[in-house]
């Protein structure tokens, strides 16, 4: 499992864009994790799936709500990762009104989850292999803090916990 001090994996995620700009075309666009994280402080959180109850009711809304505070504390970007495709993540971003605040990044094949060792096997529930619920502060591509939830829990990966870690 990825640890504090480790570099983020060298994988490519996908991000759905509804408008063209900043060199991004409409539709899914590649996000090379190591390149994009370079020189930035990122509040990254991951969860089992888009449109799932805890993720939609608590996890994403908390980061949208704390956006201004996280920015003031020195966070350059907020990333939400899930093992879903870019189209689902784009639709979820619209539903959560996260545009301009939280980058909804698709880990469609679970490459990031596998590379970090933070997978969650939900095949018995018909959902395949997903990501565990966790959050981390990333500074210049390296993990500065890591908060992994216990099974079925939502206690340490919330925006408030990460904000306190960013503030130090």
TrEMBL record:
GO CC annotation: cytoplasm
Similarity section: Belongs to the peroxiredoxin family. Prx5 subfamily.
Species of origin: Ramlibacter monticola
Catalyzed reactions per annotation: a hydroperoxide + 2 glutathione = an alcohol + glutathione disulfide + H2O
CDD domains: PRX5_like
Pfam families in the cross-refs: Redoxin
GO BP annotations listed: cell redox homeostasis; cellular response to oxidative stress; hydrogen peroxide catabolic process
Oxidoreductase listed as a keyword: yes
Record has Oxidoreductase as a keyword: yes
Domain Thioredoxin, chain residue ranges per copy: 2-168
UniProtKB keywords: Antioxidant, Oxidoreductase, Peroxidase, Redox-active center
Lineage: Bacteria, Pseudomonadati, Pseudomonadota, Betaproteobacteria, Burkholderiales
Active site: 55
Annotated EC: 1.11.1.27
EC category name: oxidoreductase
GO molecular function: thioredoxin peroxidase activity
Protein name, per record: Glutathione-dependent peroxiredoxin
UniProt xrefs under InterPro entries: PRX5-like, Redoxin, Thioredoxin-like_sf, Thioredoxin_domain
Primary role: Thiol-specific peroxidase that catalyzes the reduction of hydrogen peroxide and organic hydroperoxides to water and alcohols, respectively. Plays a role in cell protection against oxidative stress by detoxifying peroxides.
């Amino acid at each position: 499992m990825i640890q504090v001090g480790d570099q983020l994996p060298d994988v490519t995620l996908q991000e759905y864009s509804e408008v063209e700009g900043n060199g991004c075309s409409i539709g899914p666009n590649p996000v090379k994790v190591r390149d994009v994280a370079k020189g930035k402080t990122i509040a990254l959180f991951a969860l089992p799936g888009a449109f799932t109850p805890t993720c939609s009711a608590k996890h994403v809304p908390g980061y949208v709500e704390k956006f201004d505070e996280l920015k003031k504390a020195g966070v350059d970007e907020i990333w939400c990762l899930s093992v879903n495709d870019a189209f689902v993540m784009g639709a979820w971003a619209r539903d959560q009104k996260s545009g301009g605040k939280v980058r909804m990044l698709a880990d469609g094949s679970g490459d990031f989850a596998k590379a970090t060792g933070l997978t969650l096997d939900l095949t018995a529930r018909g959902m395949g292999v997903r990501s565990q619920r966790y959050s981390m502060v990333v500074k210049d591509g390296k993990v500065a803090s890591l908060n992994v939830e216990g099974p079925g829990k939502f206690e340490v990966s919330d925006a408030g916990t990460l904000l306190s870690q960013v503030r130090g």
